[in-house]
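Exercise 7 asks you to align residues with tokens for two separate proteins.
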Amino acid sequence: MLKSFFQRQRWFRFAIYVLASILLLGALVHWALPPLLRPWLEKEASQILHRPVKIGELAINPYSLQFDLSDVAVRDQYGPFVSFKSLQVNAEWRSIWRMAPVVRSITLDTPKVTLIRLAADRYNFSDLIPQKSQTTKTDEPLPRFSLNNIRIIGGDIRLDDRVVGANQTLDQLNFSLPFLSTLPQRINEYIQPQLSARFNGRPFELKGESKPFEDSLDTLLKIKINQQDLTPFLAYAPNFLRGLRCHRRY
């Protein structure tokens, strides 16, 4: 009986040590890691984008796997380029046994983008577009991932067209996508994106459904536009779309 008592004490002390270690590690990740990680992220992002990147705040909750970036701003030689109020990513622990990233939610709040058209086919972001590769496609499998509850809230895109001396505005942009997954159990399901915004002050909506990772690429797109002339927009569309004719319908 005495032996059993000491064994229980040993297991109790072990459980206390494990719990204390988890709490200590969580506290270190939550409080100590963000101040060290934020400058590194700024440096790496600046090198990749060839533009200065500033991050106001980085927060990590190691228990809920929540990651928050706040007050992020990217500038280029012309001024503000990209910014957003916050980006929140909630991952899930089942990523471990799924052997793939599983994200519960992604929320991008108040993104702002300033685009500048410098020449007919040159913009202030043209240097970020990768060059076409001559390598042939391989039959490599799709990377495994599951992204859920993707949202963009209050987006704002401004285009300064210095070629024709015009400005285009896409604001009040809201986007939602319930999921995007390459996991086998969901690859045959339709994804259903929804987007609403105003283009130069006039609202429009876009809804669709698609199977982007199926060979059939089965896709349906519905656009609701009220009294909107899209002809000026075609100047910025890819070459294969510029031959389309747009008509206003009242």
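Second protein for Exercise 7:
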Amino acid sequence: MNKQNSLSSISKYRSPIMGMAIIWVVMFHYRLQAPILSVISNYGYAGVDFFMFLSAFGLYYSMSKNDNVMMFYKKRFLRIFPTYFIIGFLCTYFLYQKNVSITEFLWVYSTLGYFTDGEFGGWFIPSIVVLYVAFPFLYHTIMKRDDMRLFGFLMTVVFFLVGYYVVFENSNMTFTDSDRLWKHVLLLYRLPVFFMGFFTAHVLLNKKKEKVLWLGAWAFAAVGVGFYCMKTTMTVCLSTSLVSLLLLYVLAALANKTGNCKMLINVMGGVGKASLEIYMIHLPVIAALKRMFPIPFAEHYDSCALLTLLLVCVIGISAHKILSKIYAKIW
């Protein structure tokens, strides 16, 4: 296959693509209002699908180098929870200025609140934790044995469950506290993309034909269009998730052609490496700025939101570098 069209660049440009994804997610949460910006930001939740795919892709590469399960869990724990607790503490008590007890804080940031009817700090981090816990089993059971029949069966089951649940059970689900199942559904309908992430890594690392990946991406997109035509809340979300796989493949295939844009690649790479920190602070920061500068935000919202996005990226990258140096000295 022509090198410029090769999906092998996913590994090389994983961090820059994650940088683009987190910026897209932040734009979605900031709800930009200008005509072009609103169209882009309205579909920013697809950035989460990029993360799901790239997370699975990275997990496969990591386990292929060292398949020790306890070491795998240790690395994932140290990457997420210290930062999750530190930034969560600062955001809760200083940016949001919430009056919550330490017990309540620990309940939220231990992710226990996500699995109960209690308070939870967001659905994404607990969902990623679930996938991290399950991944070694998937790797050793399917991928290490190169059991494509089992993988195909598992994908079929996942598609059936996701399709049934989204189409028949919760097609018009509302993302409100009165409908608490949404926090789990947001993970459920992204499972196909997550599975394709480690399957893609498996195909590339084992130097198999990439044609099967492109066929899979086009099949996902075709099914996604079908779901979109149903025009319900959850089918549109599932549609976007499925189509995002093809979009990510196209970005990866084009990455080699833009590889000479080193400044852009380096900037996006820095943003991507700090994606956890940026994700955690982007909502608390804009909430604090809205309290401090209500009039500018009311009169020039998009400009203020974009400046906040830039500020959040700078703070996130700085926090990532500082925390990484501290962690390096501790463990």
